[in-house]
Design a protein that fits this description.
Two copies of one chain form a homodimer. Helices cover 31% and strands 24% of the residues of chain A. Chain A is an alpha/beta fold and 429 residues long. The relative contact order of chain A is 0.15. The longest helix of chain A has 20 residues, at 135-154. Chain A contains twelve helices and 27 strands. Chain A has a six-stranded mixed sheet, with helices on one face. At the A-B interface, strand 4, strand 5, helix 5 and helix 12 of A face strand 4, strand 5, helix 5 and helix 12 of B.
């Protein structure tokens, strides 16, 4: 290999982990202290607490509150190198990961690259309706939302003004529902006194779902109570509504056409490049089909976990949630340790569902713990506590708590920044 | 005028304020409750607490901590409209301010657009050595600093690695000194354990000043003690060193050439477009020469304040600091109120210097209150209290305090995000 290399402990097996999300980071942390040389590769320098990314997109939190430098998390883990780099491919015969200018050898490879949004064979929709996966996505959406209202304030044509004040969210899974609730609060409460020529109360928020109900991964009664709460917040929920076309400022649903200033995409996801790298079997969403030990058929030493993997348990595919990624990460780390110490793990991976939570607005959440189900204010307190607890570092916990307490009692949202990248040039002011 | 207009209180005089910095915001706030119709125009949607911007550039604070939405600040001030727009020019004969698609009539106009960096007739240097004026500037610099070290970690050529680990700051005024101190702490303390192939301790930080000493606006003994503190922090201070040429990766100072990964510009400033808009007299830095009441000769109803104005007092031009802008803003507001109520203010503007502070690193500051001068840890505590106090809103104060306390005791810096704008395309990973 060329320039870059690990220079300590030359005889230990090499573990390469791609992706520092919940899954990848679990693998690395469990392998702390083991006799392996780990290289963690991520295209970003930070681990992102994605469950709260919608709060950044709606100006409730600031990007740094939910992102933590990967190097910082692992600074005391001597057996681990962190590389900020983009992976170009994998040579699974000779066991190399290709970067732009380098290649990294591996004995074990864990692919935990996550998912991105699926525009159903319409890649041109992505620029019209950004999804919510990265910090940039979140600040782009925040800018679109706030800037639409700024333009509406200056607009004299009532038709255009009405369009600018219409927000459409496509897809009513947890992210779509959380976004819709948060935008409703931002417009109908936080910004109430801020404008002189428009009334933020008249902002329309449409949540569009192709399926028959919102939050379809939850039981029917919980999804109904979430729907009622959205209604109270002033969100119009449209089910059985599949987007047939998107063009700038216009969402088409069959015959119906909606003029709007902002469209946000929270519909289907796809598993990314892992299937192409490995030339292995994928499901229809592009996720790599893995064996019971999360390894890949005919690709020795390779594991795929989290949103990138297709794993079936009791006839159902595991959902793309943090819990699954974390448990799979732990399992793979144990599996690798077993291989290294000649004490192989025999049991297949088994996912233990600890429950499912979603929040709607600032004081309502739903929870499904199998037998036990709940919704309302206390569930929201639970949602809140769990999210604070899982935030990776202590400082973020305090910062997020301060901001939430502040926002809760004042309805203010501090992170209402419209920032422009230097390269943008034309600002259309 | 076209579309946009104020629709209340049609008979009240119209005051247009351009720029929502310290100066512009002072004017508007003092005129609260007066019988005037105010329009505050800014190209951004937020007021920025610029004295702490260097903390964002060095990952100590996050952008939202020091920025506050203008609408939010003025939401209860009924006589004021906020416009997020770029000003194209001024028709000072017929009294209009031109926006891209609109024009706004005025009876009184206050120009408080601030300053930007002056590249001494080398506009091409701006992309090589960004200055520090906006949130985007700060996140660009933060990205450059952090990304240089990421690249150094992966670089095998010792020459290139050494260059990537060299940071040059041009200009040793308060901003340059604060940046140099903060980068030294970031590299030599915060990141100490984060890398495996480079030693952050060996990061070189050069502070380059064309004049004979750093912080030339302070007394000699204070500037010397600041210089010593920088030395202790590991900053190399070069005085009598004027940049003769800049190209990507290379700073030339006369015969000497320094290879470096990051250059930050903190040298001279210029007053911006106001002189061109008004076709009026400017000084050699492009600042508009104003009369004793801060109005402009032959431009009825027009005032220029803050960094955009050239005002002499006791034979000296007032410096471009927040204090001057705030006091001038208060004066102009009173002056306008006097004109409107037929009770004109006769006294000329007089600046009361409340003192001058600058900080070097995390526990040293210098203060010059005329007779009383001090430096050291207690001065730093004073600097700290004043900056917290002047932060515009309560939430920011708590957030900044939490982060500073955290950083102080742990040496961590939470805001170490490398974010890329979507449009950037080539990331060079």
């Amino acid at each position: 290999m060329t320039g870059w290399h690990q220079d300590t402990n030359e005889s230990a097996p090499r573990v390469v982990v791609i992706g520092a999300g919940f899954g990848g980071l679990s693998v690395v942390r469990v392998l702390r202290g083991e006799n392996v040389r780990i290289t963690l590769i991520d295209r970003n320098n930070h681990h992102l607490f994605q469950p709260l990314l919608y709060q950044v997109a709606t100006a409730g939190l600031s990007p740094t509150d939910i992102a933590c430098p990967i190097r910082n998390i692992l600074r005391r883990q001597a057996n681990t190198d962190v590389l900020m780099a983009e992976v170009d491919g994998v040579d699974w015969v000779n066991r190399y990961v290709f970067l732009k200018k380098d290649r990294i050898p591996y004995d074990f490879l864990v692919i935990a690259t996550g998912s991105h949004y699926n525009y159903f064979a319409h890649p041109e929709w992505e620029s019209i309706a950004p999804g919510l996966k990265t910090i940039s996505d979140a600040t782009t959406i925040r800018r679109n939302i706030l800037f639409s209202l700024e333009k509406a304030e200056m607009e004299s044509d009532p038709e255009i003004r009405r369009a600018l004040m219409t927000f459409v969210i496509v897809g009513a899974g947890p992210t779509g529902v959380e976004m819709a609730g948060a935008i409703a609060e931002l417009a109908h409460r936080t910004l109430l006194l801020d404008f002189r020529h428009i009334d933020p109360k008249s902002v329309r928020i449409l949540l569009i779902e192709a399926g028959e109900r919102i939050l379809s991964s939850f039981p029917v009664n919980l999804s109904e109570s979430a729907s009622k709460t959205l209604c109270k917040l002033g969100v119009e929920v449209l089910t059985h509504a599949a987007v047939s076309n998107l063009s700038p400022g216009i969402v088409e649903i069959g015959e119906r056409s909606i003029s709007c200033g902002t469209v946000i995409w929270a519909a289907g996801i796809t598993g990314g490049s892992a299937g192409r790298w490995l030339q292995s079997e994928t499901d229809r969403l592009g996720r790599v089909v893995v064996k019971h030990d999360l390894s890949v058929e005919g690709r020795p030493g390779v594991y795929v976990i989290g949103d990138t993997a297709h794993f079936e348990q009791n006839g159902k595919t595991l959902p793309g949630v943090a819990q699954v990624a974390i448990q799979q990460g732990h399992y793979v780390a144990r599996h690798i340790r077993g291989e290294v110490t000649n004490n192989p793990v025999k049991d297949p991976f088994h996912y233990t569902d600890k429950g499912n939570l979603a929040t709607v607005g600032r004081s309502f959440a739903i929870a499904d713990f199998g037998k036990y189900r709940s919704s309302g204010f206390l569930t929201w307190i639970l949602w809140w506590m769990i999210h604070i607890w899982y935030l990776i570092d202590f400082q973020s916990r305090i910062l997020v708590m301060v901001q939430w307490a502040w926002a809760y009692f004042t309805f203010k949202r501090g992170a209402r920044l419209i920032t422009f990248a230097d390269c943008e040039g034309e600002k259309d002011l």
